[in-house]
Amino acid sequence: MSVNTSMNWKQLLSAKRWGYEHRVSDSHLIARSEFQRDYDRLIFSSPFRRLQNKTQVFPLPGAVFVHNRLTHSLEVASVGRSLGRLFYTKMKDADSEIDELYPYLQEVGNMVSAACLSHDLGNPAFGHSGEAAISTYFTEGDGRKYQEQVTKEEWADLTHFEGNANALRILTHPFNGKDDKGFALTYTSLASIVKYPCAAIDGHIKKNHHRKKYGYFASERETFETIAAELGLLEDPTNPKGYLRHPLVYLVEAADDICYNIIDLEDAHHLKILSYPEVEDLLLPLCGGEDLRARLDSLYDTASRVALLRAKAINTLTKACVDVFYNEQEQFLKGTFPSALMDALDADIVAHLKRINKISVAKIYNAPTVVQIEVAGYKVMNALLAEFVPAYLKKNKNSYDEKLVALIPHQFYTDQEDSYSKIRSVLDFVSGMTDVYAIDLYRKITGMIIPSID
């Protein structure tokens, strides 16, 4: 591992592409850069399209449009591009020769945007309750019996399913019959999605922001170590087996934080969970001190008023996050910045964001429809795992087991004989399902509905 005490932009910003390391890129000289290619590959991919039928917060579908994982990811990518571009502009204003020193710095907006686009790619159906349901199968369900068949590191993966780690796997794993380079994204795009650069067995340390969860499964440890070595990521002094964050992770995280803090309020208003006066009271203080009263009063449609407040609040938070990232750049390159960007903003902004979060937890995240989909998600995901995991692991399969395994797409099969690899394959299948597909398959295999023959 690196013995340096600071990371550097020249090494951190790399156009080297996973699986095609031998290729030399001159992307800063052509119309479509390597990082724009990353973005385009994600946009046109099947896992990204499936996000349109994965829950963000509110159940899908509904009579009133609310955000799903796909629309959320697109909005996060938009904010992320602004964060990266504003940072580059500040760097360029401070040093007119910065492009000669760091040729790829001008692409930082595209790098962050691509990472934002893929940050939720590994999230299962039913929002965060889907993650919890998968974990619960192994901690409290029938999956407990597999503990003796895997290593401690592998067991930590299974009992703490993490969408962030699953995203890295989706992007790099050679699935059966697919490109053995995965998505073949650039090293920088891959590193920028790993919020917690450690394995599950070393994560869940709440006092260390970069270890609050974990960022790669045991199956992808070597993958991330290769990425870290190429980009010069620093060894974590609190965990010799882990790393400190790539600095751009903070911008990806900030874009995500900005969007869900603000946009969940907009959805809550559409669903009449929060009234317009409640939303205005929450968002107006984040609008940068600009006097919006006349503009707001001129809009008779409350949805338009909320949209204006949302745009102004996002703009305020975006600029504030960039200021911190630019001013504290040395800390980010040393890996010593101790919190999320949003937690380091002006005290008044942080206090107000905490107020928004408190109200969101009470009125939005615990709204009856949200809780109902979470409960349903637990039942559906647990039942699917209870059927498919033992069937796939059995050496002597009966007729029913064989029919279940036949429902698993060939791309998720593995040639490995160990239990962990086989369980991981089933998790690849189940975690990739949309809400609608998971519910439909659950109903069919439990006999609640009988499939029709067209």
UniProtKB/TrEMBL annotation:
<dbReference type="InterPro" id="IPR023293">
    <property type="entry name" value="dGTP_triP_hydro_central_sf"/>
</dbReference>
<dbReference type="InterPro" id="IPR026875">
    <property type="entry name" value="PHydrolase_assoc_dom"/>
</dbReference>
<dbReference type="InterPro" id="IPR006261">
    <property type="entry name" value="dGTPase"/>
</dbReference>
<keyword id="KW-0378">Hydrolase</keyword>
<dbReference type="Pfam" id="PF13286">
    <property type="entry name" value="HD_assoc"/>
</dbReference>
<dbReference type="InterPro" id="IPR027432">
    <property type="entry name" value="dGTP_triphosphohydrolase_C"/>
</dbReference>
<dbReference type="InterPro" id="IPR003607">
    <property type="entry name" value="HD/PDEase_dom"/>
</dbReference>
<feature type="domain" description="HD/PDEase">
    <location>
        <begin position="65"/>
        <end position="270"/>
    </location>
</feature>
<protein>
    <submittedName>
        <fullName>Deoxyguanosinetriphosphate triphosphohydrolase</fullName>
    </submittedName>
</protein>
<dbReference type="InterPro" id="IPR050135">
    <property type="entry name" value="dGTPase-like"/>
</dbReference>
